[in-house]
């Protein structure tokens, strides 16, 4: 098997889009595209020998990009058929010599198709406009890595104990499902639902209460995002009245800048700025929940709603 040449170390962060290292503008566009989705990349990190003559390398192939999290090499091309044909020949040769190497030939139209294969394409899969997204805060891989770390920490902290996870519906659904599978302790899952303030003229109350008796049980309240702390304080008071052996909170997102009521968050996935975020269960009018990443929603995506100002003000009193 011929040797691989020119391998470089993986970067710790997504690449920085700088036109200087790129040979073609399309490469800079692709790097910017990857940065938007917070996908780590390397530019021309490795060369492969394809042919030899008299014991010396006669032909090399250097893919344009390497995506470490996907373990995938990407070679960009134009739609010019002669160039596509030449590059296809090189890629076929590379696959013959290095069968464990994953490589794709990609044109501009193939960007979204590539992302869809690896779970970044929900914007394309639905009818949502990609223009709704200001920027991506946390990629799918970053979320999963953090959830796994939270699961390990909870499993360690509650070694020898069983747990009751209480999810606060319904934005927590995705996070709770992934977190529960990352915890190695025996556990029970139950749910609470607090009435939407716009539909509850009689004041805050539970639309759904617990089915499970949490008396003398170790309980962790799981929440997608904590803002002002009003909702969390209301729910915690309700749970404490049930007499659990212990009660703690695990929040995926903490928007501490908006906090009014102090809340003790034992486990936090990410600290976030005071922005309107959606994805991974969080929604705006029930949309965007299925995005695999967490992103900031552009103001234009919700500012035209006639009641958004009233609803936001009302919700702020409760959250």
Description:
The protein folds into 2 domains: 4-118, Endonuclease, Chain A; 138-318, Rossmann fold (3-Layer(aba) Sandwich). The chain is 28% helix and 25% strand. The protein has helices spanning 25-36, 81-97, 111-117, 122-125, 140-157, 173-182, 230-240, 308-318; strands at 4-5, 42-43, 47-53, 56-61, 65-67, 72-76, 103-106, 133-138, 163-168, 187-194, 206-208, 218-226, 246-254, 267-271, 277-278, 294-297. The strands form 4 sheets. The protein has a 6-stranded mixed β-sheet with strand order 11-10-9-12-13-14, sandwiched between helices. A 4-stranded mixed β-sheet has the order 2-5-6-7, covered by helices on one side. Strands 1-3-4 form a 3-stranded antiparallel β-sheet, covered by helices on one side. Helix 5 crosses helix 6 (173-182). It starts with a strand and ends with a helix.
């Amino acid at each position: 098997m011929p040797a691989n040449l020119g391998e470089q170390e993986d970067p710790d962060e997504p690449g920085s889009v700088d036109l200087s290292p790129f040979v073609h503008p399309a490469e800079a566009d692709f790097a910017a595209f990857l940065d938007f989705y917070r996908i780590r990349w390397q530019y021309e990190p490795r060369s492969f020998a394809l042919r030899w003559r008299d014991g010396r390398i006669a032909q090399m192939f250097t893919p344009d990009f390497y995506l470490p999290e996907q373990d995938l090499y990407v070679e960009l091309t134009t739609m010019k058929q002669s160039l596509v044909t030449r590059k296809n020949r090189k890629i076929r040769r590379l696959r013959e010599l290095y069968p464990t190497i994953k490589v794709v030939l990609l044109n501009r139209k193939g960007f979204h198709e590539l992302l869809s294969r690896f779970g970044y394409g929900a914007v394309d899969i639905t009818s949502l406009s990609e223009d709704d997204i200001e920027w991506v805060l946390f990629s799918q891989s970053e979320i999963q890595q953090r959830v796994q770390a939270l699961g390990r920490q909870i499993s360690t902290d509650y070694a020898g104990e069983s747990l009751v996870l209480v999810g606060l519906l319904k934005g927590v659904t995705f996070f709770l499902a992934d977190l529960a599978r990352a915890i190695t302790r025996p556990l029970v899952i139950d749910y609470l639902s607090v009435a939407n303030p716009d539909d509850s003229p009689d004041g805050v109350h539970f639309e759904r209460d617990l089915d499970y008796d949490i008396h003398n049980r170790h309980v962790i309240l799981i929440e997608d995002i904590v803002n002002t702390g009003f909702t969390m304080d209301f729910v915690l008071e309700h749970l404490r009245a049930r007499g659990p052996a212990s009660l703690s909170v695990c929040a995926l997102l903490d928007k501490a800048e908006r906090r009014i009521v102090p809340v003790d968050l034992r486990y936090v996935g990410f600290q976030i700025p005071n922005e309107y975020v959606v994805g991974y269960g969080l929604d705006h009018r029930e949309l965007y929940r299925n995005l695999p990443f967490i992103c900031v929603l552009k103001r234009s995506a919700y500012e035209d709603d006639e009641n958004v100002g009233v609803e936001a003000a009302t919700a702020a009193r409760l959250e």
